[in-house]
Specification:
The protein is an alpha+beta fold. The protein is built from six helices and seven strands; from the N terminus they run H-E-H-E-E-H-E-E-H-H-H-E-E. It starts with a helix and ends in a 6-residue tail after the last strand.
Length: 175
């Protein structure tokens, strides 16, 4: 039933009929709060979790952008071993705001990078649904970003870690 709910959610996010509850949102404030809510999990896994950055104003749906960050942090925690580090950074660059999640996890092989936002795709085929999730979280995150006129970029080096960057248009008052 969880998978059906996730597919339903993804379909809504990909739909042109999606209604966003947009408001002026400070990505820095949202990221700082979300990082605080993940501190206990990071401590339990013996992973350093830090936040840096400042205000980055966007016109966005707080709950949905929060879900993107939650998905990215869950993945970072899942694939970063004890003793590793995860950093979250927000800021403004050119005409967009960014939210970056960087980890020192296992990384993603180059041949898998172009597929990771596809539904049900798992870079490690041995991963079962019980241990590896549904393979839909990144597809949902990308659909939410696109619904806001944004995108998600990924850089990764196998054995070193990954960097996921959410880019969103700046709020008009910030430009």
């Amino acid at each position: 039933s969880k998978l059906v709910d996730e597919l339903s959610t993804l379909s809504r996010y990909e739909s042109a009929l999606l209604k966003l509850d947009t408001q002026v949102l400070d990505l820095g404030e949202l990221a700082a709060q979300t990082v605080r809510s993940f501190e206990r999990l990071a401590i339990e896994k013996e992973i350093s979790l830090t936040f840096s950055g400042g205000a980055a104003l966007v016109l966005a749906d707080r709950d949905r952008i929060g879900q993107v960050l939650i998905n990215l942090l869950h993945n970072a925690l899942k694939f970063t071993p004890s003793g590793g580090a995860i950093s979250v950074e927000t800021g403004v660059s050119a005409d967009h705001a960014f939210l970056r999640v960087q980890d020192t996890g296992c990384g993603i092989a180059p041949e898998h990078l172009r597929f990771i936002f596809e539904r049900f795709y798992r870079a490690d085929p041995s991963r079962a649904r019980e241990t590896g999730g549904s393979g839909i979280g990144l597809a949902i995150a990308l659909a939410i970003a696109k619904a806001h006129g944004g995108e998600i970029l990924v850089e990764s080096t196998l054995g070193t870690g990954s960097v996921f960057t959410l880019l969103l248009p700046l709020h008009p008052a910030s430009v």
